[in-house]
Amino acid sequence: MTPEVVLGIDIGGTFTKFGLVDKKGKIYHEDQISSTEHPEIEGFIKALHKYLMDSLAKLDRKFKLVGIGVGAPNSNYYTGTIEDAANLIWKGKIAFVELMEEQFGLPVVVTNDANAAALGEMLFGDARGLDNFLMITLGTGLGSGLVVNGDIIYGSDGFAGELGHVRAVDDGRQCGCGKRGCLETYVSATGIKRTVFELLSTESIDSEFRKIPFNKLKPKLITALAESGDPIAMKAFERTGFLLGRSLADTVAHIGPSRIFLFGGLAKARKWIIDPTKRSMEEHLFPIYRNKIDIVASALLTRNIAVLGAAALSWKKLHQVTI
Ligand SMILES: [Zn+2]
User: Is the pLDDT of residue 322 over 80?
Assistant: First the structure.
């Protein structure tokens, strides 16, 4: 029998990744194209279509493609547009869903990558059966998907739930959004690097980090050094977790989740980030919420959650799954 699949697409600043995904989360075919080769969105969509059709024709197995789900920065679930995404080369307001549907002749749905990740966890991960939870994606920035009463919160304009840009520190670090002290300037791969270098300038303790230039530093290395007992690495995680936990305590008061999932390079540090975050969240929580909320790494930590989440979005739109 020809398997029914949807196309899950994750549009990033450098690459656009995609995969054919069935209802159970099995990815049959995965690939990527450049996000920067086509200055016009129309050219990009044509290239994506041609590339996909050519690769499908070459596969031994045939698939029935029934829909397309897309995770993209600054995308709007309601209007199907991508609006002024700082990391993408296409500027202004793009009628993305309309252009995609014209090209592919299939139903297309779009949301931001963190909302897609939350849906991925709901359909294919450990959020199955949970009606209230929070997904935090820790990449270059901090993304968040809020699920309340069984559904993603999109808000009145489609952009609700940007926890990366709540204020974590008064007059704090400059953020790419133009504000100061946003949570993602502290809690993200870039944020923890900035913390490491800040600690190196204020502390005189010896550390392996003193030999490493800023652009060579990856979260993986910070984790490895924390494991080996480096005091700067341990302090950096402690400070990052403190700020994340304090913000999460506020978010808990707003939406009452039963579990909080962390995803991304920094989440792979597991206990190094989870333990201080949990301690700080509990300390800052309104007492009635204490000792009720788990903070865990995503079950899809080693899988392509962005593609799986975009696929989950499409399956949900097609009403072929209940989540
Ligand atoms: Zn910001």
Answer: no
Given a contact cutoff of 8 angstroms between Cβ atoms, the answer to whether 117 and 298 are in contact is yes
| Ligand 1 centroid – CA 158 distance (Å) | 18
Instruction: State the distance from the centre of ligand 1 to the C-alpha of 167, rounded, in angstroms.
Output: 8
- For the stretch 227-234, contacts whose Cβ atoms lie closer than 8 Å and that sit 24 or more positions apart, written own/partner, are 231/203, 231/205, 231/207, 232/196, 232/199, 232/200, 232/203, 232/205, 232/207, 233/196, 233/207, 233/209, 234/272
Task: Return the amino acid letter for 78.
Answer: Y
* Distance (Å) from CA 6 to ligand 1 centroid: 33
Are 104 and 68 in contact by the 8 Å Cβ rule? The answer is yes
Nearest to 115 by CA among 148, 79, 67, 81: 148
pTM of the predicted model as reported, rounded to 2 decimal places: 0.92
Report CA(91)–ligand 1 centroid distance (Å). Answer: 19
Q: Residues 5-29: pLDDT tens digits?
A: 999 999 998 999 999 999 999 999 9
Between residues 319 and 316, the one the model is more confident about: 316
Q: Where are the alpha helices (DSSP H) in 10-95?
A: 41-58
What is the strand order of the sheet 142-148 is part of? 151-152, 142-148, 133-138, 259-263, 294-297
Residue 180: pLDDT band with limits 50, 70, 90: very high
